[in-house]
Design a protein that fits this description.
mainly beta; Immunoglobulin-like; five-stranded mixed β-sheet; four-stranded antiparallel β-sheet; 1 helix; 15 strands; about 10% helix; about 50% strand; elongated
Amino acid sequence: MVKNNNIKYMMVRRQPTTGVSPVIGILLMVAVTIGLFALGSIIFLDIGNQTSEPADASVDLTEAEDDSDVGVSARIEYNDNVDEFFIEHEHGETKSFDEVGVSNQMIEGPGQYMLIANVDGSEQQLDTVTIAAEGSGEFQIQAINGHEGQIDEGDTYSIDVDIRNDANEIGTQEIELEVEDQGGQAQEQDNPVDVKEVTVEEDEVRTYELEWDTGSGDSPGGPGQSAHYEIYVHTEDDTESAGPISVSG
C-alpha cells in the first residue's frame, strides 16, 4: 500500500550545446583546404600565363667597320613575336631597332656586344659578339700537346696549343707554326706553315690546333731515309719549341 507521500520529480533542463559537431568541423576543414588549393592553382596558372614565349626571330649579328673603327651590324631576317631588339655594348650605349630586313650598325670600338630581344616586356639575350683590338693582349704559350716525333711524308702533323692571355683586357693576335730544317736534307719550308688569328679573354686559356701538311720533298727520299726538323710555335709575345720531328720517305 502506497503512502500518500508527495513524490517530487526533478526536472532536469538540458542546456543547449555551444560547441561544433566533430563531423561539421571536419567538413569545414576539407572545404577550406579545397578552397586554398583552388586559389593557389589560379595564382600559379596566372603567373605561368605571364611568362613570355622564346623570341621567334632570325637576326645576324656580325662585325662591322667604319673608318677603321669597329663595332657590330645586325640584320633581321624575320620576326614573329619580338617587340623590339637592342644592341648593347658592355661599356657604351644601347641602340634599339625593330624593322625587318634593315641593317642596324653600332660602332663603339672593341669590347662585347649583346643582342637582346624584348618579348612581351621580357628581355631575352639572343647572341653575343666580342671584338678585340688588333695586336692587343699578352699571349703566352702555356702548353703544347699532341707532338709526334716521327711521321711519314704526305701525312699531316698536328698539335694543340694552349694560349693564355696575361693582359688585363681581351686580346687578338696571330699564332704561327714554324718548321725549321735541321740538316739541309729537304726543301726549305714556306714558313709559317699554319697561321690562326685568335681572340682570348683576359686571364683565359684557350686551345687551338695548328697543322703542317707534309708533301713531296719534305723527306730526302728513299726507304728508311728521313729529314729532321724542329717545330716552333710563335705568338707576338712568346715562342716555344714543340720538339724535333723526323719525316720519312
